[in-house]
Amino acid sequence: MHAVKSEAAILAGTGTDSSLAASLAAAIDPLKQQHDDDHEYNAWRDEHPCILQHFDTFLERVNGKRVAVFLDYDGTLTPIVNNPDNAVLSPQMRDTVRQVAHLFPTAIISGRGRDKVEGFVQLPELFYAGSHGMDIAGPKDDHSNLTPHNFQAAAEFRPMIDQLYHDLCKRLQDIPGASVEHNNFCVSAHFRNCATEHWQQVVVAVNESVAAQQAQLHVTRGRKVLEVRPQVDWDKGRALLHLLEVLGLQQQADVLPIYIGDDKTDEDAFRALQDHTGIGILVSTKAKPTAAAFTSYACSPGDRTSMGQSGLSSGLTMV
Ligand SMILES: [Mg+2]
């Protein structure tokens, strides 16, 4: 808890030890040496600097601001794992998120079903936005000073999503390694465990399943997953802005929202922050187009820590 109060003091603008931050950032960036001769990667890193190596810049931007924190789940708080049901949150990461939520309004915005993410995270003091933000609820902590809120942007699509899930289960059942996940208001077709030669079969099956309802459903691509969502004007960015409004923090010069995510659907949130002077942080080891201002590396699945050791945790422990 001492570290949390120190972080609060720094975010309030009372100073920081820049040499400590820089030395720690250098020590914990395992990609630096690997990419020393990779000009494309280094140009990308110049444009989207590693937040840990530029933590002073980050602190300058948050100095004196009221911060709200928005977090993706898979690949951000946990490593990407072969079986989505095994993407459990480490005790260390849970403790880190708990500390963040103690300081700032905090929400998880995930493509997963809200109930599943709530089950993984087990922190009732948070807001949760499942199904890419289409299913929002929280906090459920009786001691929270935040008003509980519920909102479902695509409730009328639930029967159609149920039907789609059952159809996709049938279509993918004979494709080795393929799996289907019901995320309440969207459906994920995973091909992470498929041999490469079967990937196209999954794409074809999903497209065929959606074909009859193209006016109402659309398909997006994530990290070895296809996600079918209702055709509604709603995404993680809209969910973030909705939560800011719920919190009474929208369009205020002294408010600074921060979003951390790793995948294409997180770009909607990064773009929303660009328009609202927030800070996006992309978790990635690879150079790729992003609207995020900063980046952070992701750990290998074996580390079981993902963003925790590189971003949130380091921010809390380096002071
Ligand atoms: Mg993710």
From TrEMBL:
User: What InterPro entries does this protein map onto?
Assistant: HAD-like_sf (IPR036412), HAD-SF_hydro_IIB (IPR006379), HAD_sf (IPR023214), OTSB-like (IPR044651), Trehalose_PPase (IPR003337)
Cofactors required: a divalent metal cation
Domain of life here?
Eukaryota
Q: Which pathway is it part of?
A: Glycan biosynthesis; trehalose biosynthesis
The answer to keyword Nucleotidyltransferase applying to this record is: no
- Pfam families given for it? Trehalose_PPase
Reactions listed under catalytic activity = alpha,alpha-trehalose 6-phosphate + H2O = alpha,alpha-trehalose + phosphate
Q: What is its EC number?
A: 3.1.3.12
Keywords (alphabetical) are: Hydrolase
**Is the keyword Oxidoreductase in the record?**
no
What does this chain do? Removes the phosphate from trehalose 6-phosphate to produce free trehalose.
User: Which NCBIfam families does this one have?
Assistant: HAD-SF-IIB, T6PP
The UniProt family comment states: Belongs to the trehalose phosphatase family.
- How is this protein named in the record? Trehalose 6-phosphate phosphatase
Name the species this protein comes from. Answer: Tetradesmus obliquus
Classification lineage: Eukaryota, Viridiplantae, Chlorophyta, core chlorophytes, Chlorophyceae
